[in-house]
Amino acid sequence: MAAEAGGKVAVITGASSGIGRAAAQAFARQNWRLVLAARSLPALEIAAQECTDAGGEAFPFACDVTHFDDIRALAEAAKQRYGQLDVWVNDAGVHMLGRFEDLPLEDFRQVIEVNLMGTVHGCRAALPIFRAQGHGVLINIASMAGAIGQPFASAYVASKWAVRGLSEALRMELLDAPGVHVCTVLPPSIDTPLFQHAGNVAGRAVQPVPPVHSPEELADIIVSLASKPEREVFMGMGRLVAAARAVAPAATERLMARAVAKRHFQQSTSGRSRGNLYAPQTDSGRATAITIAAAALVAVPLGVYAWRRMRGHSAYV
Q: Does the domain at residues 9-316 carry the CATH identifier 3.40.50.720?
């Protein structure tokens, strides 16, 4: 069965900032017991205290999702401390921006190691526990970039498509375990430090592609999946854009390419940086704010285009 609020246990990776931190607070407000994982222990301790203040209980566990031994120890720590495991959220992620042929191969590989293999490691640690218990909810944070590609983000896009495919494969394998659920979340841009912490060889400063949603919005979705699992969840106009790609892929790709080229990069220049690919950064704030007017420049054309394509295509009538 799916987990219910109150006294349940969740592990959240990437919990020191952004989506993971917001999800931890949302679970804490429903009295969950939490194990918070990330690379920075000081940042995790702050996040854990926030959860305690919100009414939950949280235990910080510093680890690196690219090391399976770390993640296996994380799962064991949750079981030993709380005796059960009801939800596992694979949220840890990094980003790298720049033209594909300019990306250092070792940095491309590191994005895959964190975003994909980190999720693989979480799944491998959680699923045996879920199977043994007969229940559990695995929540994998993918991205809209796992439903439609984006230029200058090839490593991130590849990793998120892979996370979506992995989740689908696991759902098929778990047909013999009806109490175990695998949910994939495909959010658009979220107001987190992901972008200013990203590796960057593009030569220009970056900002999230509007429209930008708050991490609290996504956190509420994650918490709701714990009690009402769904196979895939989109946010905002995400489903419309994905539908437009399904019926008119070439045109939608061109629109997305133009939108990203126009809105993802600022006018200011930026030096080459590996960002937080290999070590955490201390700033756990949010991305640079995007105005509603700027968001409309991307959201309205893509949304209107998607709606028109669906109206004109029998599969979506």
A: yes
